[in-house]
Amino acid sequence: MQHKIPVSQLGPQGEIMAHAIEACVHCGFCLPACPTYTVLGEEMDSPRGRIFLMKEVLEGGLNLEEATPYLDKCLGCVGCVTACPSGVAYGELISTFRGWSEPKRQRTPFQKVFRMAIQETLPYPSRFRTAATLGKLGKLMQPVLPQFLQAPLNLLPDELPMAQPLPEVIPAEGARRAKVAFLAGCAQQVLQPNFNWATLRVLAKNGVEVVIPKGQGCCGALSMHTGERERALGFARNNLEAFPPDVDAIITNAAGCGSGLKEYHILFHGEPESALADGFVKKVKDVSVFLAELGLKEPPALKQPLKVAYHDACHLAHAQGVRAEPRKLLKSIPGVELLEIAEGELCCGSAGTYNLEQPAIAATLGERKARNIIATGARLIVTGNIGCFTQIQTHLRKLGKEIPVMHTLELLDKAYSG
After folding, report:
1. I need a surface site. Which of 18, 103, 382, 389 has the fewest CB within 10 A?
2. Which residues of the chain carry a pLDDT beneath 70?
3. Domains defined along the chain, listed by start
4. What span, in angstroms and rounded, lies between the C-alpha atoms of 8 and 14?
5. pTM above 0.85, yes or no
């Protein structure tokens, strides 16, 4: 099918957008897989509808301002990619379209300040810690604040864990089986530092030497998925330089970060660093995949049998296709009974900064996810992403359920430590 999209006028990412749009045959398999379509029931709030809108904007048949209300509601969860029989690269399309369109948008002064606050805070752990500490004061005024300001406060814990700086190297225990570099992440260093420490202890226990590059920074996913392409390129260039080449893998323990790193080849398409980014991407692995491939040292049995519900983070299950490996690790712990969550493929509503920018839809999805989790009868929920952890914990508590939530590697770490 011939397209009218002026690819040559759209910059280095035009080819990516045009290819994804052309692949869509408008079959509708994506509709039930889309969280916003499930909640809102509108065609333009589905992947198929959004592809039509983006095509019309790129061809000049529709003003950008007419399309953005629907495009902004997209979580970027890419559940539609899993459901699509035609292989439409919707995740690549929505990210590149946002990068192309953001400089052209007319945002209100408030929107600009709000987005700038997010971009200048979340990717920097020290700044985020300061902002989160100030947020505790904001909670005192929460009842009189508008909903868009209440949403970020609802996601903050009552008390922040103490800062736990990471060393530059964690040696392997016993014979070294592998050497990896580790991406520490941003928000989880502040909100849940034990995610990283548990990951490092489990890797060391399995004979893996871990290097934590001092010069690393944000993976760039937050900027990439909100249309701040130049900012994302800056973060990515820094990481291409910071991570050493002499490692067996580049490890992440956050689904969103891992997906962001794996999208460097898209981000750098048409850029001078394209070949370097391709090589970098080939080494990126979620920690569950790396350990499953390496072969896990069998953990001891838990002291008591435990019913565990595993939540699939969208950017593991859909964006990276990682579903079996976390379950394999959890099933390797004697005493764990693994339970599946109804509608497990549907996003919990976290989706990067989505629960900050679209709090009403995010809250609906969060409650839906929490109710499905409660229905399993699990005594513990396990996931592989800080955003999902925060969203699920928040909505379980709203429903009056204090079911603990952990990272996959935290449960493994607990099993090893007895």
Report:
1. 103
2. 1-3, 142, 144, 146-148
3. 7-104 (1.10.1060.10), 298-417 (3.40.50.11810)
4. 7
5. yes
